[in-house]
Specification:
single chain, mainly alpha, 11 helices, about 0% strand, globular
Length: about 250
């Protein structure tokens, strides 16, 4: 599973790409990130529905897969609510304290999210190399725009650039131990991959619809909407094409 580790390492560089984009392009990078999110919606949805779910259906009954898929959505709702509750609970006190807390919660939440992405990536590679690369592409596509936004928030809290780059990458790099753990446990997980794939698919769909789609609605105009839809379709098409290679 050497390629799984390589994929995790490459995907972790999304934080450096996002940081570099902000430093080089500033606000232009943040605007571009909105368009990249539309593409990411397509890749996440495509990976979930065209690859993760069909792979699981080859080993489990349809009703089992669909229940696990819905369970994945519920699981991600619970995790996000937990992070948001912590954020709301701690947002008391001075403005400076609130900014520091915002940065801390952002980094911890991102680290947890990327660790889970790593576990999903390891499980996907355990199922098949093709599924692994499709999953890696979907993760990378939504990580770059997310990291652009995260880095902008860290700078907005007053954190210096060097520290922001380091901490942003550190939170993104948790995808690597997540992948390694999934691979080390592969003998244990071998009989559970078909159960875990639809859970991962539910997580992908939740991220796309609950976290990314609302961001697109902030962009006004018919032209923007048409372009966003075109990018979503492009993301689905790319996942479909990548899945047919090899």
């Amino acid at each position: 599973m050497y390629w799984a580790f390589v994929a995790a390492l490459v995907t972790s560089f999304a934080a450096l790409i996002g940081s570099g984009a902000i430093l080089l392009a500033g606000r232009r990078a943040e605007r571009a990130a909105v368009w990249m999110l539309a593409f990411a919606i397509g890749t996440l949805g495509g990976a979930a529905m065209l690859h993760l779910i069909p792979e699981a259906l080859e080993h489990r009954a349809t009703d089992e897969v669909m229940m696990l898929f819905l369970g994945g959505i519920v699981l991600f709702i619970i995790m996000e609510r937990a992070v948001r509750w912590r954020h709301t609970h701690l947002r008391e006190g001075s403005h400076a304290h609130d900014l520091a807390v915002t940065a801390e919660v952002l980094l911890w939440g991102d680290a947890l999210h990327n660790f889970i992405d790593g576990v999903v990536l390891g499980i996907a590679f355990r199922a098949s190399p093709e599924l692994g690369w499709v999953t890696a592409l979907a993760i990378f596509a939504h990580e770059v725009p997310q990291e652009i936004g995260d880095f902008a928030v860290l700078l907005g809290t007053g954190m210096n650039r060097r520290r922001a780059i380091f901490l942003n990458y550190l939170s993104a790099a948790t995808i690597i131990p997540g992948t390694i753990i999934a691979l080390l446990w592969s003998p244990v997980l071998s009989g559970s991959v078909a159960w875990l794939l639809p859970v991962a698919a539910g997580g992908f769909v939740y991220i796309a619809l609950a976290d990314l789609v609302p961001t697109l609605h902030h962009t006004r105009g018919r032209g923007a909407a048409v372009f966003q839809i075109a990018l979503i379709i492009l993301g689905i098409a790319v996942i479909r094409i990548v899945g047919t290679i090899g």
